[in-house]
Amino acid sequence: MFERSSEELAINKLLILYVLNKMEIPLTNSQITQVIMENEFVNYFSLQQFISELTDSRFIKIVKEDGKDYYSLTQKSIETLEYFISRIPDDTKEKIDLYVMNNKENILKETQIKSNFSKVGNNEFIVNLKVIENQTELINIDLNVPSNKQAKLICDNWKKNAPDIYGEIIQLLINK
């Protein structure tokens, strides 16, 4: 079995903390995995073990939202990262910084703009639309629509245009 030094294990855990810090928002396990795996820093199984160990030792906490688990930094991890950040190789930090710069907007949309719908009766669907910022709901709308097709269309349009729609709603409420 391939053994890693304790230094390498620590750096890999710091890497996860660095990703969460750079993103500045809680991330799902799959989002963390995507960042790490796309940059080929750690294999999948080791990554899952590191996330579990960081959670168990309270370096990252789990926030449950809409049935999903999101991982975020604790004060302990922020202090640790500040102290040990120099141990992460500069080229690795640069790769993460570049990845975050190129992908943060899409990840933000994924975690802050939510839409779903459920059937509540014959020809009756409830669509729920949300915008969340810093774990605070900015807007939460429930709409009753008559068809599955309309519900899907509303959800798709919300995902594509939520910031604009939210802005227009606020303007309408302020100006009327």
Automatic annotation (TrEMBL):
Pfam families: DUF4364
Superkingdom of origin: Bacteria
Gene3D superfamilies: Winged helix-like DNA-binding domain superfamily/Winged helix DNA-binding domain (1.10.10.10)
Protein's name according to its UniProt entry: DUF4364 domain-containing protein
Organism from which the protein derives: Alkalithermobacter paradoxus
